[in-house]
């Protein structure tokens, strides 16, 4: 075969895969666009990842409906309780460096704070319990509401809010900025204005699951004390920098507000002001889909023993079931097999870290055997009893159909 003809054939062969990937991605965009158009979501972004990287990512709809600002993979949003997975990484890193032990009484590390379960004062609370929501901490709404500090009061006079939404926003009007330690002291010191025996469960530490928003932030403060570093500084240096994650923010003042999505209520899609979270390690991380997907790639790689940040043995301990199968704490639920460091281990093998907060919903999961993970983000707080939930779950299920080599 003449040289020119051979080179032409090679050029055509090399073009075919990229052409197929382009058509494949366009088709995926169209199908997802159809699913999105059939929903009532203001905006969303989705991704599928493998151990090799991001296989597919795309944004749909609006980050701000009134301004018609597109929701992209770079749109910033509060990822709520998925922030806890970063605490898990920081915890595993500190354990790897022998700065803390997973089963030591946290009061051994704490400065200016002592946490004692009032019903079981002699039973220690440990980092393992905090990382699995089994520490016996079950905070009241009275303790939680001061964590929401809105930058502007919601327009209750003209906004279309439901009665429960109005009551919630009114209860936050007197909130103010405070340090993590100050907030924890208000909750856990017996003379604190937010202290209440009802912030603790009737079960002993380690015996029952109670989803807690304060417990994860308490774990972050333990890390502050044990490392003698501010949690934000510690995470930026020991987690974000090694993973080359540069679009992670723990407060509104630290980010470019023009890139941030507007948040909407789930009932009437009423826009609400953004807020800072005084219990920020638990639910105050602002980032975008792309960087969240890169973080998920690291989790998947780490599970497979190929992580960048931690040793393979450290990741193995982090993702291992934290309780013997024959003596699980109460309250795990029928579909939950066990729990890892701020991850849920499902009966079907998926590891999940998802959350719905005021004005945002994030689903994040990966399956180590099938070697892929997926993410769904929207700027709407999806309630369990709203039609948005079924619409979001249809999109969530469709992500399983995306080829892992989609190439986008």
Class of secondary structure makeup:
alpha+beta
| Beta-strand proportion | 15-25%
What is the first-to-last residue Cα distance?
Answer: 35 Å
Low-confidence stretches: 10-16, 18-22
Mean pLDDT: 91
Query: With helices defined by DSSP (H or I, 4 residues minimum), what is the helix count?
Result: 12
Strand and helix order: HEEEEHHHEHHHHEEEHEHHEEEEEEH
Rg over CA atoms, rounded to whole Å, is: 22 Å
Outline, from the CA principal axes? globular
Biggest sheet features: 9 strands, antiparallel
Q: How many β strands by DSSP? A: 15
Helix content: 25-40%
Outline the secondary-structure elements.
Blueprint: H1 3-37, E1 43-50, E2 53-64, E3 69-70, E4 77-78, H2 84-96, H3 127-131, H4 141-144, E5 148-150, H5 163-171, H6 180-188, H7 214-227, H8 231-240, E6 263-264, E7 271-272, E8 275-277, H9 280-283, E9 286-287, H10 289-303, H11 312-319, E10 336-339, E11 344-346, E12 351-352, E13 355-357, E14 360-367, E15 372-378, H12 387-398
Antiparallel strand pairs: 1-2, 1-15, 2-3, 4-9, 5-8, 6-7, 10-11, 11-12, 12-14, 13-14, 14-15
Helix pairs in contact: 2-7, 2-8, 2-11
Written overview of the protein:
There is one protein chain. The protein is an alpha+beta fold and 408 residues long. Helix content is 34%, strand content 15%. The chain has 12 helices and 15 strands. It has helices at residues 3-37, 84-96, 127-131, 141-144, 163-171, 180-188, 214-227, 231-240, 280-283, 289-303, 312-319, 387-398; strands at residues 43-50, 53-64, 69-70, 77-78, 148-150, 263-264, 271-272, 275-277, 286-287, 336-339, 344-346, 351-352, 355-357, 360-367, 372-378. Strands 1, 2, 3, 10, 11, 12, 13, 14 and 15 form a 9-stranded antiparallel β-sheet that branches. α2 (84-96) runs parallel beside α7 and α2 packs across α11. The radius of gyration is 22 Å and the shape is globular. The two termini are 35 Å apart.
């Amino acid at each position: 075969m003449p040289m020119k003809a051979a080179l032409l054939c090679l050029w055509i062969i090399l073009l075919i895969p990229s052409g197929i990937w382009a058509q494949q991605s366009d088709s995926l965009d169209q199908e997802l666009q159809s699913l999105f158009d059939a929903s009532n979501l203001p905006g969303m972004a989705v991704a599928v990842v493998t151990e090799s990287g991001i296989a597919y990512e795309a944004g749909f709809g609006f980050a701000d409906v009134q301004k018609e600002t597109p929701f992209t993979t770079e749109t910033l949003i509060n990822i709520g309780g998925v922030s806890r997975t970063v605490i898990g990484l920081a915890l595993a890193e500190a354990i790897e460096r022998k700065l803390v032990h997973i089963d030591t009484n946290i009061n051994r590390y704490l400065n200016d704070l002592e946490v004692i379960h009032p019903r079981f004062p002699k039973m220690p609370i440990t980092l393992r319990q905090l990382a699995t929501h089994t520490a016996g901490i079950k905070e009241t709404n009275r303790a939680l509401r001061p964590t929401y500090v809105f930058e502007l009061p919601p327009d209750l006079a003209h906004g279309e809010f439901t009665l429960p939404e109005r009551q919630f926003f009114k209860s936050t009007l007197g909130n103010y900025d405070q340090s993590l330690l100050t907030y924890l002291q208000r909750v856990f010191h017996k003379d604190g204005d937010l202290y209440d025996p009802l912030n603790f469960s009737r079960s002993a530490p380690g015996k029952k699951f109670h989803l807690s928003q304060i417990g994860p932030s308490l774990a972050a403060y333990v890390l502050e004390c044990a490392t003698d570093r501010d949690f934000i500084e510690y995470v930026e240096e020991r987690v974000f920098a090694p993973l080359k994650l540069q679009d992670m923010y723990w407060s509104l003042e630290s980010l470019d507000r023009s890139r941030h999505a507007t948040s909407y209520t789930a009932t009437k899609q009423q826009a609400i002001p953004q807020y800072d979270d005084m219990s920020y390690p638990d639910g105050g991380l602002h980032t975008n889909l792309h960087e969240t997907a890169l973080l998920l790639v690291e989790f998947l790689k780490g599970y497979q023993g190929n992580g960048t940040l931690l040793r393979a043995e450290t990741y193995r301990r982090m993702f291992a079931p934290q309780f013997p199968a024959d003596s699980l704490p109460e309250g795990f639920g029928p579909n939950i097999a066990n729990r890892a460091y701020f991850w849920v281990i499902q009966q079907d093998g998926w590891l999940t870290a998802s959350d719905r907060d005021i004005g945002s919903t994030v689903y994040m999961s990966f399956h180590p055997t099938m070697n892929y993970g997926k993410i769904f983000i929207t700027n709407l707080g999806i309630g369990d009893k709203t039609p948005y939930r079924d619409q979001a779950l249809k999109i969530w299920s469709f992500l399983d159909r995306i080829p892992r080599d989609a190439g986008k």
